[in-house]
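Why this split exists: single-chain examples teach little about how molecules sit against one another. For that reason, every record in the complexes split bundles all components of an assembly together and asks for one structure covering all of them. Below is a record exactly as it appears in the raw files.
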Amino acid sequence: AQKITQTQPGMFVQEKEAVTLDCTYDTSDQSYGLFWYKQPSSGEMIFLIYQGSYDEQNATEGRYSLNFQKARKSANLVISASQLGDSAMYFCAMRVLNRDDKIIFGKGTRLHILP
Amino acid sequence: DSGVTQTPKHLITATGQRVTLRCSPRSGDLSVYWYQQSLDQGLQFLIQYYNGEERAKGNILERFSAQQFPDLHSELNLSSLELGDSALYFCASSVGWLTGELFFGEGSRLTVL
């Protein structure tokens, strides 16, 4: 069965520092995609970044990058130069690309950026 | 604005009642997903539809049902409500099946008293 694990329930980081949010996944399938979403206190879910299992380069989107280590089954989100507005809940998610389109989410990491 | 519309935004009802949550996907998106987020919990996948057909089912209770209509909007029906059903229910859409990121609506917050 597919599973997403986020081991950091909460993190406190000083503003302007880089942040790494951990995500490990479990699947026996070879074709899959990994997502990161941000949920601010207002509650909406905001798509941040996507990495396909066959993508050779790590995905980057502005200050967000995904550190994809396939052999370790990890897909950590790196936020560079953190800002106060980055304080939010962050979810890692996975979609397996050769069966039912069930996108599963981890339990999330609550990130607090300190001024 | 994600382009996904959910109504109602807030709903308060009593145990034993039935409610219907509505979702309009982004224009052009064929897939609709429903998720339940309880307090301080991650998102639990409920069900997914593609172009009117159910394609994936998660931990959806038998008291819950859903459908996607020909105009691609979707409804999630929750019946015989219990206190534990209080949660934020998200609808998301994506362009196709097994492709595209999910765009989420703002959610429908259900409170069961």
